[in-house]
Specification:
globular, 6 helices
């Protein structure tokens, strides 16, 4: 809706950049702790996986927790992160 005329958003590409962002560690810190969050980020970098793929593989969060924690409404409003 607010793109330059002719440019269309690519939601799947935006999702990819979101899932590889090291900034997700800040969302994970209060939930799994700083050292676990840092290890997830390092492992994602080392393996080429996304941060969410590492979380799923290591079973650090359930799918329901992932869906709730990383919901756009959860991430775009100020306040405390809720599990």
């Amino acid at each position: 809706e607010r793109c330059v005329d002719g440019i269309k958003p690519r939601p799947e590409r935006c999702r990819h950049y979101f899932e590889i962002s090291q900034g997700l560690a800040t969302v994970l810190n209060p939930i799994i702790g700083y050292s676990n969050a840092a290890e997830v980020v390092k492992e994602a970098e080392r393996t080429g996986e996304t941060i969410l793929q590492v979380i799923r593989r290591k079973k650090l969060l359930t799918e329901a927790e992932i869906k709730k924690l990383f919901a756009p409404s959860q991430l775009t409003k100020p306040g405390k992160i809720k599990r």
